[in-house]
Amino acid sequence: MHVKDIMSREVFLVDKDQNIQDALKIMKKHKVSRLPVVNTNSHHVKELVGIMTEKDIARRLGSSRYGNLAPSHFHASTVMTHLPLTIESNKSIGLAAQIMIENNIGGIPVVDGGEIKGMLTKTDFLNTTKGRSFQEIKVEDRMTADPITIGPQDRLVHARRLIFDEDIGRLPVTEDDALEGIVTSKDIASSMISFRKVVPDKYKPARIRNLLVEDIMTQNVKTVPGSASIEEVSTIMVENNFSGLPVLDEGELTGIITKTDLMKLIVELEEVH
């Protein structure tokens, strides 16, 4: 199977001069977590110059380097990763998955002859997890056991730091060993933008330190048992636009299963060339 067989042909772009509020609106509207960044020249040719993700936004907006700048002053070019990796449409999905895992990226533009033809994300791979082998493999065999967690009363700046230091996309929120919610890099990016809009500049540094995880976490989290099949969990992820699910057994958090875990499985099962 090749990249062209599973990639998304509808690509949502952001111009390098658009601000990150516009970018987040595009992400929310189309339920995507990353956008290729283009430079549109006088001939209306869209040159790929970068890629930006929700995590990039959360990183920049929480950074002291950018002080009290309003979200409208942040352009895509400030936040994006320059010269992103790309892949050609005729490459195998095994190779594509391997490149994404090795470089810890959740999406890669598909470029043929200098032209953006599509976008390949972790979600596109989930549709390949159908069939007998994926029914027989259980979540408990592929999940990350004993995941890093955070408490609802912990500060949001601590959650943000954990997400970047540990290079993860989400943190289960627990209290007294019970799962209370989940907080993601998307939650942090959205809250940082809202916060910067409504809080006067001179109060921003102090107020941001007082934001708590419980203020922004998602409650009533969807979970799966360790006995669920990989096919079942991939279907839940696609239908609900989830990137990861806490694994709960007998009321106890035993692990977390993510799209990356499923991609690693695909690499094992697919040819890489």
Label this structure with key terms:
273 residues, alpha+beta, CBS-domain, 11 strands
Secondary structure: elements and pairs:
Blueprint (H helix, E strand, L loop, with lengths): L2 H4 L7 E2 L4 H11 L3 E7 L5 E8 H8 L14 H4 L1 E2 L10 H10 L4 E6 L2 E7 H5 L5 H5 L2 H4 L1 E2 L10 H10 L4 E6 L2 E7 H14 L5 H7 L2 H4 L13 H11 L3 E6 L2 E7 H11 L4
Helix pairs in contact: 3-10, 5-14
CATH class of the largest domain: Alpha Beta
Individual helix count:
14
Please report which band the strand proportion falls in: under 5%, 5-15%, 15-25%, 25-35%, 35-45% or over 45%: 15-25%
Under CATH, the topology of the largest domain is which? CBS-domain
Taking the alpha carbons of the first and last residues, their distance comes to 11 Å
Adjacency order of strands in the biggest sheet:
1-2-3-4
Overall 3D form: flat
Question: Rg to the nearest angstrom?
Answer: 19 Å
In summary, what is this structure?
By secondary structure, the protein is of the alpha+beta class.
What does this protein look like?
- Helix 3 crosses helix 10 (185-198) and helix 5 (93-102) crosses helix 14 (259-269).
- The chain has a four-stranded mixed β-sheet. A three-stranded antiparallel β-sheet has the order 7-11-10. It has a two-stranded antiparallel sheet with strand order 5-6.
- It is 40% helix and 22% strand.
- It is flat, with a radius of gyration of 19 Å.
- It is built from 14 helices and eleven strands.
- It has two domains: 3-121, CBS-domain, CATH 3.10.580; 132-184 and 212-269, CBS-domain (Roll), CATH 3.10.580.10.
- With 273 residues, the chain is of the alpha+beta class.
